[in-house]
């Protein structure tokens, strides 16, 4: 076209003015034409196709939409479509467009149009023959006309993209024209055009420049009415509202960096996230996206970002290659013998073009990285919220146990019978599947999904651009190579194909390893979770060593997987370091063998290109592994998200999401012909007949394949749990089901559910709540929750529930009672009063503001139960379900609760369903009664009907056994323990039990570096430092060798440009892979300093004749370099593994040995975060970051030295550029450090809250509080994302500024070179390439330094825990106790306490004051007193959990403060209130150190009546009749006559007892055993230890009468030879003891025999007995005891 239009000028011959003006007019015209074409409406079918094609390019969430969703959710807590419509108009009402802006656009455009039209008309008249000249001007006028109409037709307050692009094109055209005039004048000496033309050209340029300035200053968005304008840039992120210029330069980030440079940032300093990045709007939108797979949903929600990331990456790669392209042109221009003015001018133009390309590349980079980061941030939030949302809706699988071990044993037996080949094949298949994700995830795994897997997916997304860029680069480099070497270029690539099978083997292996590693990490976290949850219990028994070993064993398995992973990485690394070197050698070899001459230009250019291919080739395999591993993570999340959910009837979230419940839904609460079983993970398993004899039965699928449940006391309280326990010998499954239940609880009345232990009372409540699996058969649950519907009594149609094991949140007592409902003072006070909490709150120093630790750690059992009860009563709900709240309190309080609460105004008009044994107590106020037996309803009806039928008496009688137990619980409320009530005594604002997490400030201290270097061994780091030097030396050798090679050709004049190609795939990809950085990073610039004589006095052979000599030595240097890299990687891995092993061990030991106080005041999540995320960082990325910093600093110094030697002048600008770099880097490092630390700290609460929620999910769902918990999570995710995202934005700002500075440095160097270095292309090449190396190494040093500081933050957090307050030493070698100590022979002073004073802190009042007493051997002593009187403290001080401030304690003549705590605790036995069991077998629980024989273990199980002593088979209580159960299964086969036989639950003829043996599996926390069974096992432990002193903290938990009787009998019979000290809660327990100690306000008030104390007028003990309501009975018992001891 151009050839025809302009006479002799070619299309790209820009020296011709005609060509220049043609381009200036055609480009804008074509652009305007396209804009007009696309605005024409399409026909319907075409429009459909167009819509499908453009769907991925639509904005997922606009700012207006995000604000509307956010406001909407905040307003109504639900997302209803009708609300949606109300909100939209306000959000989308278009912002005001300033009139002046429209006027500027229109008037300037109009003036330009008229001028160009006038000029065109003038041209036509002046020279009619030059029609093309006139047409050109009319085309420009047409383009300008578009700019006139566009602002009028569609005015916009934000930058119009079409106008902006058009102005840019017009600006380039104007620049081209005016530049051309100057060039012609300066280079060719043409005369200047007329003044008018110059003015017109300058004016045109100025006008377009001015318009561009106006557009650049327009804001990206206009704040809506909801956004306070004054807050933008303070608390509101300026990101959305910055100007276009601010966005292009990333200037909007700078105010934060300026603030962070000199001050430590706090959370309030960091502005909030943009609504388009906030968790709630993103998740709400994500939730509405329906696709078949999780990957599909993520793509649908993030396609625009991912596509833009993809496209801009290509743009970036193209601009990246433009740099070397222009560099070659520059060097060609100045390499001429006699440079002409024209060649020099051209060199200047190329230099500026190269500069512009560098800036464009920087801009493309920063934009594509921003889109990638936005996708990553959103995906992270979407996945975390989806996992949490699922947790709120999935069925509760908490009671399920790990059956893997049993299955293994069974499998072993069957495998033994199979042929070898078959066995091997099965083993291989099993190994392949071993760590595949399975349903039924436990708490540890779910938390891992959120912490690890969601993060991995988002990290991969943010770095996906390596995958896009690498193939594109290889294609470009391949094309250049083909031009140089022909087909021989590709002969080298056969190496890659040959290596592919090995590569794919390594890749496959890495996936298997990754699965194994994740699974091992889950298991290790499971063990730690259990350990930290039960750490107090472990200390009671002095089992720390056993547990530390157990955790270290799990860790060792994980370490073995990590070592495999590292070996795999080294193989990969070796493969890919050597490949590019081999490729270039083989290509050269082929080229020479074809007889072609390998000239210097071919050799050097192709070496540069091969080096360029090296990086993308390295990226591809590493990223294949990365993507496959991310696939594993995504699959784990997808499996979890597909687990079974509860019905919409149960989950308020599902009701919200679908539709509010229909108005005509059946009222009431009940069940209709329904049968239920416990939730279990449905697996299709073959029924395996491996029973023997009469016990033959089938194994059900009631077990989960989950790893060890990771919570020690799962907060779900269910009486009879899913079970699949088998002994090794017999496999029999006792499955509990509720059968054919029909019940309708009368509205507004009190209904009572009673029945023997394990008959299904709790199960009935669970069934009503929808927490059990409804079996098919037409049954249904009658229950509706609709909190928005309120009846005439002001009650919501909703449920409140008090579980049997209370689930309390880690908040104040008041917040626990309010549970998110508004505070109504009058109602609140009434609730506290009626739940008998007032006396407790009066005693607590901070009253209801007292903070409850995790799991209610600072309250006693009865207090927990009443707080949970108060929560259920406070909510204005129509239905109240109470699971046995009366059992945890004494008779006095239960009467108070009955009169004031159950019959009081608070529960009037409410349908109350009460599970209780106190039938007699509540009967007068009850209306309806249900009696459960064996999972069926035995009797039901109104009290009147039942009375008429005469059934009521039987029920009363059966319940009387249970009631008798309650009567015996004669300790009133003040007797309950309160572990922490009176510890610290500040009277300031409520004390925080849990301190806020500590955050370091300032740079990472040198001591932290030292801790890490020491842990990973100084030798290894010395070795690595020397490798860095070797690598740099090899780099210089390579350059020198190429110089010698060049000289060997003998014609240096022909030496073409030596180009530096910098690959686009920079080093960042290696940060991602395996978390490690390979240690050497080269910018490959090759320079020859050519001399005529042989270098170093050697007469080198002629390169033309002996090309292979040079190729060979070049190859040797390359391979040596590769080998150095591999060695450094191996060393690095070795150091890293050593450090993670040592630091993990130190951390574990310190945390386990920390004081009680620390464990009470530190949330589990915080400790687990240290063991999880921080340990993982040290495992994976830390050593790499440190080595990367070393390498990049070495590169930096090497490049500076090179430049200084070759071209000292460069040091002048380098100083200024260096200062600018320093300024930017300091701002970035200081800000980034604070942001990353805050991000670590804000991450902990997400996980500790998540763990807490999973434990109390049944309660949360019952209260319909899921939405509130989800909103809370959104807030927490936003806080942590805010830090994370802002950190990455500061990083992008740094990248852009560094790239800009780098481009400037290269431009200055280039201009210097062109001006000063006459006729020396080689020298110029060296300078320019070194300048490039200089800038990139500074940037990477800075990047890696931040990464390093961030990783060291993890070391910092671990080191912080290495200084925790520790308990006294476990063993004092110089003071070991004798083997017989403490002796139980007739010792009249076995325990002597002298003047004991105990304080919890020096500044707090004493908890115990001047306590002195002496206890004899074999005596039984009760310890009594009101809450806070110091009972527990005294008991604890015997075990040295608190050391005395004054006074001493002697046990058998030895002062206990002089012996190690392990020696002390292992000789005494402490039986705590709530017995904790651990995952493993019963044998592991009884005897963790394996010190006793099986016979001894079985013997103690028989003695505590866990198993019967019939030799053939030992039947016992259903080992798993209950999870976290309270009322345990009754023990069978022992005292049949005195118990209600309540276990024939199965309707089949199979004997329904489950066997308990030493190999019976126990789930974490023992949740598959009932509370009574757990207590019996604790007794068995104590018996096995045969201690001379036993301290028993009596259980307040609700154990049924028969089990309680057994426990008391066991204590009386079995502990005769020991001194028994009981912290009593029931007077009945201790009334027949030898002596009683009564404490009051920290002093001993009374100390005598029960008979003497009960006789003492106005005595504290006597008053307690009088208040208990069974004084006569107690007095008789005391008298009998006194008589038997011959005291009266």
Automatic annotation (TrEMBL):
Indicate, by first and last residue, each region the UniProt record lists as having compositional bias (Low complexity).
Answer: 703-712, 1509-1530
Q: Which domain of life is it from?
A: Eukaryota
In the UniProt record, does the keyword Transmembrane occur?
A: yes
Q: What is its main location?
A: membrane
* One GO cellular component, as annotated: membrane
Which CDD domains has this protein been placed in?
A: ABC_6TM_VMR1_D1_like, ABC_6TM_VMR1_D2_like, ABCC_MRP_domain1, ABCC_MRP_domain2
UniProt keyword terms in alphabetical order:
ATP-binding, Membrane, Nucleotide-binding, Transmembrane, Transmembrane helix, Transport
Gene3D superfamilies per record: ABC transporter type 1, transmembrane domain, P-loop containing nucleotide triphosphate hydrolases
* Chain spans, region Disordered: 408-438, 650-669, 681-725, 1509-1537
SMART domains in the record: AAA
Residues forming the ABC transmembrane type-1 domain are 307-629, 1098-1350
Composition bias of kind Basic and acidic residues appears in: 424-438, 686-698
Q: Where in the cell is it found?
A: Membrane
Keyword ATP-binding on entry: yes
**Which residue ranges run through the membrane?**
22-40, 98-119, 131-152, 164-183, 195-216, 306-327, 463-482, 488-507, 570-592, 1196-1221, 1293-1314
- InterPro entries in the record: AAA+_ATPase, ABC1_TM_dom, ABC1_TM_sf, ABC_transporter-like_ATP-bd, ABC_transporter-like_CS, ABC_transporter_C-like, P-loop_NTPase
What is a single Pfam family found in this protein's UniProt entry?
Answer: ABC_membrane
Q: Which residues form the ABC transporter domain?
A: 723-959, 1391-1666
Question: What is the protein's given name?
Answer: ABC transporter transmembrane region
Q: Which lineage is the organism of this entry classified under, starting from the top rank?
A: Eukaryota, Fungi, Dikarya, Basidiomycota, Agaricomycotina
């Amino acid at each position: 076209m151009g050839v025809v239009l302009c006479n002799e000028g070619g299309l790209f011959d820009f020296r011709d003015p005609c060509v220049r003006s043609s381009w200036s007019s055609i480009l804008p015209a074509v652009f305007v034409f396209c804009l007009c074409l696309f605005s024409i409406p399409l026909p319907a079918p075409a429009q459909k196709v167009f819509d499908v094609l453009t769907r991925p390019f639509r904005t997922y969430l606009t700012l207006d939409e995000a604000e509307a969703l956010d406001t909407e959710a905040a307003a109504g807590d639900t997302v209803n479509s009708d609300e949606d419509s109300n909100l939209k108009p306000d959000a989308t009402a278009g912002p005001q467009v300033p009139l002046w802006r429209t006027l500027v656009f229109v008037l300037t455009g109009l003036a330009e149009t008229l001028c160009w039209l006038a000029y065109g008309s003038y041209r036509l008249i002046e020279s009619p023959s030059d029609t093309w000249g006139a047409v050109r001007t009319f085309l420009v006028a047409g383009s300008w006309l578009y700019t006139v109409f566009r602002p009028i037709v569609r005015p916009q307050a934000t930058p119009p993209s079409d106008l902006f692009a058009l102005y840019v094109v017009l600006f380039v055209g104007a620049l081209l024209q005016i530049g051309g005039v100057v060039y012609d004048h300066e280079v060719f000496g043409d005369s200047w055009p007329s003044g008018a033309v110059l003015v017109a050209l300058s004016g045109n340029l100025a006008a377009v420049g001015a318009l561009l300035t106006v557009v650049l200053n327009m804001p990206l968005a206009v704040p809506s009415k909801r956004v306070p304008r004054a807050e933008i840039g303070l608390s509101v992120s300026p990101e959305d509202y910055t100007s276009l210029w601010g966005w292009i330069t990333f200037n909007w980030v700078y105010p934060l960096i300026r603030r962070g440079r000199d001050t430590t940032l706090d959370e309030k300093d960091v502005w909030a996230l943009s609504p388009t990045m906030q968790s709630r709007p993103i998740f709400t939108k994500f939730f509405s996206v329906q696709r078949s797979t999780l990957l599909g949903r993520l793509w649908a929600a993030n396609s625009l970002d991912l596509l833009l990331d993809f496209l801009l990456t290509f743009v970036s790669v193209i601009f990246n290659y433009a740099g070397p392209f222009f560099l070659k042109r520059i060097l060609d221009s100045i390499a001429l013998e006699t440079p002409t003015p024209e060649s020099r001018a051209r060199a200047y133009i190329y230099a500026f073009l190269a500069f512009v390309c560098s800036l464009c590349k920087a801009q493309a980079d920063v934009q594509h990285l921003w889109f990638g980061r936005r996708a990553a941030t959103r995906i992270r939030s979407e996945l975390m919220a989806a996992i949490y949302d699922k947790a709120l809706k999935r069925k509760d699988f908490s009671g399920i146990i790990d059956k893997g071990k049993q299955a293994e044993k069974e499998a072993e037996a069957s495998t033994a019978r199979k042929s070898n080949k078959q066995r091997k094949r099965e083993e291989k298949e099993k190994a392949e599947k071993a760590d595949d994700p399975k349903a039924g995830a436990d708490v540890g795994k779910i938390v891992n999904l959120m912490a690890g897997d969601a993060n991995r997916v988002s990290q991969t997304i943010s770095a996906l651009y390596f995958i896009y860029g690498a193939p594109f680069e290889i294609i470009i480099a391949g094309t250049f190579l083909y031009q140089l070497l022909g087909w021989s270029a590709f002969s080298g690539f056969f190496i890659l194909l040959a290596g592919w099978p090995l590569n794919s083997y390594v890749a496959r292996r890495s996936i298997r390893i990754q699965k194994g590693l994740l699974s091992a990490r889950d298991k290790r976290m499971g063990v730690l979770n259990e350990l930290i949850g039960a750490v107090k219990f472990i200390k009671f028994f002095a089992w720390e060593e056993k547990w530390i070993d157990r955790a270290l064993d799990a860790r060792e398995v994980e370490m073995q997987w990590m070592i495999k992973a590292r070996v795999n990485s080294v193989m990969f690394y070796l493969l890919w370091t050597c490949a590019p070197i081999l490729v270039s050698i083989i290509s050269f070899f082929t080229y020479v063998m074809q007889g072609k001459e390998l000239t210097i230009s071919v050799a050097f250019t192709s070496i540069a290109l091969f080096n360029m291919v090296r990086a993308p080739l390295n990226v591809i395999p590493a990223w294949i592994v990365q993507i496959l591993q991310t696939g594993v993570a995504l699959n784990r999340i997808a499996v979890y998200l597909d687990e079974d959910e509860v019905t919409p009837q149960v989950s308020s979230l599902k009701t919200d999401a679908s539709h509010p419940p229909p108005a005509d839904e059946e009222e009431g609460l009940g069940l209709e012909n329904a049968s239920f079983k416990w939730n279990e993970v449905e697996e299709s398993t073959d029924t395996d007949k491996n029973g023997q004899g009469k016990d033959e039965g089938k194994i059900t699928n009631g077990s989960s394949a989950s790893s060890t449940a990771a919570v020690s006391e799962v907060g779900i309280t269910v009486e009879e749990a899913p079970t699949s326990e088998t002994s090794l010998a017999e496999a029999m499954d006792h499955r509990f089901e509720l059968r054919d239940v029909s019940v309708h609880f009368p509205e507004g009345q009190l209904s009572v559910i009673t029945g023997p232990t394990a008959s299904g009372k709790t199960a009935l409540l669970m069934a009503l709540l929808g927490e059990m699996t409804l079996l098919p058969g037409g049954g249904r649950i009658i229950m509706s929750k609709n909190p928005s519907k309120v009846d005439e009594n002001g009650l919501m149609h909703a449920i409140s529930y008090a579980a049997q094991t209370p689930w309390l949140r880690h908040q104040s007592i008041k917040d626990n009672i309010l549970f998110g409902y508004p505070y109504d003072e009058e109602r609140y006070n009434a609730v506290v009063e009626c739940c008998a909490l007032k006396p407790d709150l009066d005693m607590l120093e901070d009253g209801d503001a007292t903070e409850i630790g995790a799991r209610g750690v600072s309250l006693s059992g009865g207090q927990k139960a009443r707080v949970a009860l108060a929560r259920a009563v406070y909510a204005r709900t129509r239905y109240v379900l109470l699971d046995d709240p009366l059992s945890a309190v004494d008779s006095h309080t239960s009467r108070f609760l009955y009169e004031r609460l159950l019959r009081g105004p608070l529960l009037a008009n409410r349908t109350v369903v009460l599970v209780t044994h106190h039938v007699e107590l509540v009967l007068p106020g009850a209306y309806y009664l249900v009696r459960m037996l064996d999972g069926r309803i035995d009797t039901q009806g109104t009290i009147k009907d039942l009375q008429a039928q005469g059934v009521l008496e039987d029920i009363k009688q059966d319940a009387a056994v249970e009631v008798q137990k309650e009567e015996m619980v004669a300790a009133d409320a003040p007797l309950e323990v309160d572990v922490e009530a009176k510890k610290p005594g500040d009277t300031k604002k409520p004390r925080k039990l849990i301190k806020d997490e500590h955050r370091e400030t300032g740079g990472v201290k040198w001591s932290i570096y030292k801790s890490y270097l020491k842990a990973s061994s100084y030798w290894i780091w010395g070795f690595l430092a020397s490798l860095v030097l070797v690598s740099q030396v090899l780099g210089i050798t390579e350059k020198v060798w190429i110089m010698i090679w060049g000289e060997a050709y003998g014609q240096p004049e022909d030496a073409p440009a030596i180009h530096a190609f910098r690959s686009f795939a920079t080093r960042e990809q290696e940060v991602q892979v395996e978390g490690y950085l390979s240690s050497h990073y080269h910018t490959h610039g090759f320079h020859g300093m050519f001399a005529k004589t042989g270098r170093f006095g050697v007469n080198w052979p002629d390169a033309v004749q002996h090309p292979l000599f040079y190729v060979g030595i070049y190859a040797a240097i390359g391979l040596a370099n590769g080998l150095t890299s591999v060695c450094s990687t191996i060393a690095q891995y070795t150091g890293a593994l050593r450090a993670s092993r040592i630091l993990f061990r130190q951390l574990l030991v310190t945390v386990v040995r920390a004081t009680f106080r620390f464990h009470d005041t530190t949330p589990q999540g915080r400790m687990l975060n240290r063991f999880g995320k921080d340990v993982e960082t040290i495992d994976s990325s830390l050593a790499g970051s440190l080595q990367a910093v070393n390498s990049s600093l070495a590169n930096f110094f090497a490049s500076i030295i090179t430049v200084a030697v070759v071209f000292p002048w460069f040091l002048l600008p380098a100083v200024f550029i260096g200062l600018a770099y320093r300024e930017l880097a300091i701002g970035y490092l200081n800000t980034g450090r604070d942001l990353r630390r805050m991000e670590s700290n804000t991450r902990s609460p997400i996980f500790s809250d998540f763990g807490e929620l999973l434990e109390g999910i049944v309660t949360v769902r019952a209260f319909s509080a899921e939405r509130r918990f989800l909103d809370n999570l959104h807030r927490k995710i936003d806080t942590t994302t805010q830090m994370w995202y802002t950190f990455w934005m500061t990083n992008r700002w740094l990248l852009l500024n560094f790239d800009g500075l780098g481009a400037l440095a290269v431009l200055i160097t280039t201009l210097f070179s062109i001006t000063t270095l006459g006729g020396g292309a080689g020298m110029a090449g060296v300078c320019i390439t070194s300048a490039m190396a200089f800038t990139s190494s500074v940037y990477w040093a800075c990047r890696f330094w931040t990464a390093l500081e961030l990783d060291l933050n993890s070391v910092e957090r671990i080191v912080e825990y290495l200084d925790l307050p520790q308990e006294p030493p476990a063993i004092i070698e110089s003071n070991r106790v004798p083997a017989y100590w403490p002796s139980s022979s007739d010792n009249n002073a076995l325990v002597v306490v002298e003047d004991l004073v105990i304080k919890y802190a020096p500044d707090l009042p004493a908890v115990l004051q001047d306590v002195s007493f002496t206890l004899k051997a074999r005596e039984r002593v009760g310890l009594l007193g009101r809450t806070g009187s110091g009972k527990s403290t005294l008991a604890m001080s015997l075990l040295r959990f608190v050391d005395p401030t004054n006074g001493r304690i002697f046990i058998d003549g030895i002062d206990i403060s002089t012996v190690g705590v392990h020696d002390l605790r292992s000789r005494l036995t402490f039986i705590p209130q709530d017995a904790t069991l651990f995952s493993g077998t019963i044998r592991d629980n009884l005897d963790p150190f394996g010190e006793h024989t099986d016979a001894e273990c079985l013997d103690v199980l028989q003695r505590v009546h866990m198993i019967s002593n019939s030799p053939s088979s030992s039947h016992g209580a259903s080992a798993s009749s209950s999870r976290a159960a309270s009322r345990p299964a009754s023990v069978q086969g022992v005292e049949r006559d005195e118990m209600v036989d309540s276990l024939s639950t199965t309707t089949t003829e199979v004997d329904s007892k489950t066997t308990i043996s030493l190999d019976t599996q126990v789930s974490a926390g023992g949740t598959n055993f009932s509370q009574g069974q757990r207590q019996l096992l604790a007794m068995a432990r104590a018996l096995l230890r045969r201690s001379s002193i036993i301290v028993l903290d009596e259980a307040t938990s609700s154990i049924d009468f028969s089990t309680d009787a057994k426990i008391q009998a066991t204590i009386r019979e079995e502990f005769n030879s020991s001194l028994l000290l009981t912290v009593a809660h029931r007077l009945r327990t201790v009334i027949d003891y030898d002596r009683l100690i009564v404490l009051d306000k920290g002093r001993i008030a009374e100390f005598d025999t029960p008979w003497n104390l009960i006789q003492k007028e106005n005595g504290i003990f006597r008053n307690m007995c009088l208040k208990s309501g069974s004084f006569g009975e107690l007095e008789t018992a005391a008298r009998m005891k006194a008589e038997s001891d011959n005291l009266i």
